[in-house]
Design goal:
The complex is a heterodimer. Chain A contains ten helices and five strands. By secondary structure, chain A is of the alpha+beta class. In chain A, strands 2-3-1-4-5 form a five-stranded mixed β-sheet. The C terminus of chain A is likely disordered. In chain B, strand 2, helix 7 and strand 3 form a beta-alpha-beta unit. In chain B, helix 17 packs antiparallel against helix 18. Helices cover about 40% and strands about 10% of the residues of chain B. Chain B has three domains: about 220 residues, Rossmann fold (3-Layer(aba) Sandwich); about 80 residues, Roll (Ubiquitin-like (UB roll)); about 100 residues, NADH-ubiquinone oxidoreductase 51kDa subunit, iron-sulphur binding domain (de novo design (two linked rop proteins)). The radius of gyration of chain B is 23 Å and the shape is globular. Classes of the chains: A alpha+beta, B alpha/beta. At the A-B interface, helix 2, helix 5, helix 7, helix 8 and helix 9 of A face helix 1, helix 2, helix 5, helix 7 and strand 3 of B. Chain A: Its cofactor is [2Fe-2S] cluster. Chain A: It comes from Mumia xiangluensis.
């Protein structure tokens, strides 16, 4: 009996198919979903996707084996990635990876005996300003060292709660795969807007008073809301999507009454700037 | 010309409380204004702004939109139109779209809705790489909020216009950043590039007219619509207009995202951000990811716009400025990038599939100090057999770091005939936690 037999899984797969004008487009998210159920892409999952999309199993297999995020072997609760592309490798990613391999006693793309951690060296994950970078279940752990990496995997194996540097509280790899299939887990409001490096240029500009043309002398733009007080909210994690939507609706109702004077025409601002 | 060296527009609200929510973002005023205009007027505004694709190639965005056939008698004109956002940011060194979508997904969603109106598409896909879970969450939440607020869905703002947006997660394949491979992937296939022509503007997703734009390009649209083409074009240089996000990484004091008018130089960026880390001297850098030929300290004053970097023999690419200091082995770096291209080659064409494999074999010997007589010529010959002969730009890109590194640092490749790179440049000395470089280490490159 496979987990794929449940009605919920079938419904979810049909819901994915319904998003697309042509159903084959659903294949990648469907494979993410079956991984969230099975812990890997199983032969049964291949058959099921093929059946639902009117494809051959060979077609589905051909796709599943092309993409590195689809796994043929069971993945642990925590997929731990270490970036060893050039910049991260040079900045210490190679040292982190070899330390973890030794510490966990596994090779690349292998799982620890307790089933908790799968270690993999990953390619550039678009966080080079935080090198060396690691991921857990595809969440960012920035500016790592061999020691911090060991502490991280030890915490995960011991069941301690960890939060990503720029992201949410770490769940499990299977739960993450479900989000990738397009089923939100309600954690979007956790974590910060940005890390320090992401804000480096912005802060420098603020310190020096550097602004885009037309913004000189304006502390805030009509379209942005820096002059609005931050909305009082419960702690990150509790801010539900419903609450956010309710808030958004209020916002919209208010703004619709003043839509036409919401911006100064660009031409006027340009003139004002040149006059200075 | 703008006076300020940094001009945060896209990155402006990244430090705001809950910046990723609609509350913090605003009310999609640019979309309202765009919907009151004729679609062709919106296209004209984007054309006039001079916005060029921010994903690497620099193709004029408005012109790309203008290629979508709007006359039903033209080829493809009777089919639905699609917008696909390339959010598959994977070029090594590139890290601008991910923080943008994390901090401000709504500017992208608003740009998507405006672009759909302009090209007369009812359906858009944001193809985001799968390895960035929290960014995907923020995109999903932004799209959900926008639907709930009536900014997406049927009859947006009572305009009679429908816009549907699907956030689609990829599954780990660099090649899917290539626009036609991305389309195959989005159709549920292996991500392999397609022969062009036909171009996606005529036969793209589901063989229907499709615009594919980078995240930053689409995110730049709302401010252009709102503040005007002239405002946007007042920043930047003659042929490279507007502001853009430069990403600084590596052996620098303050890595990060710096939004500036096109044409700023690396020297200016370094001067304002604190320069190289203590004890570091710039040895080599990439202007726009690993697929753009390496530059050196000689090129600090090259204007970082499309023409300036091309004039220096490289490419602006994704403006991913990866800086390496004198402790770094260029042979090691080039090998690692080449291993990446080998791993990510889709296998469709022989020069790239086989060629990257051979390149790795040769470079491995050189890194280990076991190079053979003629290996440098062999590398150049291998590159020559890939460049211009591969099916897509991945193969060409794979040769860039190699040929440029040999051009600037041939000595280091020569040294690979007898001395391992890790002896010449102890790898521990390049790490983020290394003590400031000693004079002895500096001497190694002299």
């Amino acid at each position: 009996m496979s987990g794929l037999d449940s009605a919920r899984v079938r419904d979810d797969l049909q819901a994915i198919i319904a998003r697309y004008p042509q159903k084959r487009s659903a294949l990648l998210p469907m494979l993410h979903l079956v991984q969230s159920v099975e812990g890997r892409v199983t032969p049964e999952a291949i058959e099921l996707c093929a059946e639902l999309l009117d494809l051959s199993a060979a077609d589905v297999n051909g796709v599943a084996t092309f993409y590195t995020m689809y796994k043929r072997r069971d993945v642990g609760d925590y997929h731990v990635g270490v970036c060893t592309n050039t910049l991260c490798a040079v900045m210490g990613g190679d040292a982190i990876f070899s330390r973890l391999r030794e510490h966990l006693g596994v090779g690349n793309d292998e799982r620890t005996a307790d089933g908790k951690v799968t270690l993999e060296h990953i390619e550039c994950n678009a966080a080079c300003d935080y090198a060396p970078v690691m991921t857990v279940n595809w969440e960012f752990f920035d500016n790592q060292t061999p020691d911090s990496a060991v502490e991280l995997v030890d915490d995960l194996r011991a069941g301690k709660t960890r939060e990503a540097t720029r992201g949410a509280q770490i769940t499990t790899w299977r739960e993450a795969e479900r989000v990738l299939a397009g089923f939100p887990d309600g954690r979007a409001d956790e974590g910060p807007s940005a890390g320090d490096a992401s804000l480096a240029g912005l802060r420098l500009a603020q310190q020096h008073g550097w602004k885009a043309p037309g913004e000189e002398g304006l502390d805030s733009q009509a379209r942005s809301t820096s002059d609005q007080p931050p909305v009082e909210r419960a702690e990150a994690g509790d801010g539900s999507a419903e609450a956010a939507v309710a808030q958004a609706d209020t916002q919209r109702a208010e703004s619709e009454t003043k839509i036409d004077d919401s911006t100064t025409p660009p031409a006027q601002r340009e003139d004002a700037e040149e006059a200075e | 010309m703008s006076a300020a060296p940094l001009t945060p527009v896209l990155s402006r609200g990244w430090d705001h409380e809950r910046s990723w929510t609609l509350d913090a973002y605003g009310d999609y005023a640019a979309l309202r204004s765009a919907l009151r205009q004729d679609p062709d007027e919106v296209i004209a505004t984007v054309k006039d702004s001079g916005l060029r694709g921010r994903g690497g190639a620099g193709f004029p965005t408005g012109m790309k939109w203008g290629f979508i056939p709007q006359d039903p008698t033209q080829p493809g004109g009777d089919k639905p139109h699609y917008l696909v956002v390339n959010a598959d940011e994977s070029e090594p060194g590139t890290c601008k779209d991910i923080p943008l979508m994390m901090a401000n997904p709504h500017v992208l969603v608003e740009g998507v809705a405006i672009t759909c109106h302009a090209i007369r598409a009812k359906k858009a896909f944001i193809y985001v790489r799968g390895e960035v879970l929290h960014v995907i969450r923020r995109l999903q939440a932004a799209v959900e909020e926008a639907y709930a607020a009536g900014f997406l869905g049927a009859d947006v703002f009572g305009s009679g216009i429908d816009v549907d947006v699907v956030v689609h997660a990829g599954a780990g394949a660099y090649i899917c950043g290539e626009e036609t491979a991305l389309l195959d992937s989005l159709e549920g296939r292996r991500g392999q590039p397609r022969l062009r022509p036909p171009f996606p503007a005529v036969a793209g997703l589901y063989a229907a007219p499709t615009v594919i734009n980078n995240v930053e390009s689409i995110a730049s649209v709302p401010c252009i619509v709102e503040r005007g083409a002239d405002w946007f074009a007042s920043m930047g240089t003659e042929k490279s207009k507007g502001m853009t996000i430069y990403s600084l990484s590596g052996h620098v004091k303050q890595p990060g995202q710096y939004e500036a008018p096109l044409g700023i130089t690396l020297r200016e960026l370094l001067d304002m951000s604190g320069g190289m880390r203590d004890g570091s001297e710039l040895k080599f850098w990439t202007p726009g990811g690993s697929s753009t030929p390496l530059l050196t300290a000689e090129h600090l004053d090259v204007p970082l716009d499309y023409e300036g970097v091309a004039g220096a023999g490289s490419m602006l690419g994704t403006k991913a400025l990866q800086l390496f200091d004198q402790t770094t082995s260029v042979v090691r770096c080039v090998l690692r990038w080449t291993e990446f291209y080998k791993h990510e080659s889709c296998g469709k064409c022989t020069p790239c599939r086989e060629g990257t494999w051979w390149l790795v074999q040769t470079l491995e010997r050189l890194e280990a100090g076991k190079g053979q007589e003629g290996d440098i010529e062999l590398l150049l010959d291998q590159c020559d057999n890939i460049l211009g002969r591969a099916f897509c730009a991945l193969g060409d890109g794979a040769t860039s770091p190699i040929t440029s590194a040999i051009e600037h640092f041939r000595d280091e490749f020569e040294a690979g005939m007898h001395t391992p790179a890790w002896d010449l440049f102890p790898y521990e000395g390049s790490t983020a936690w290394a003590k400031p470089a000693t004079d002895a280490a500096k001497g190694a490159t002299a």
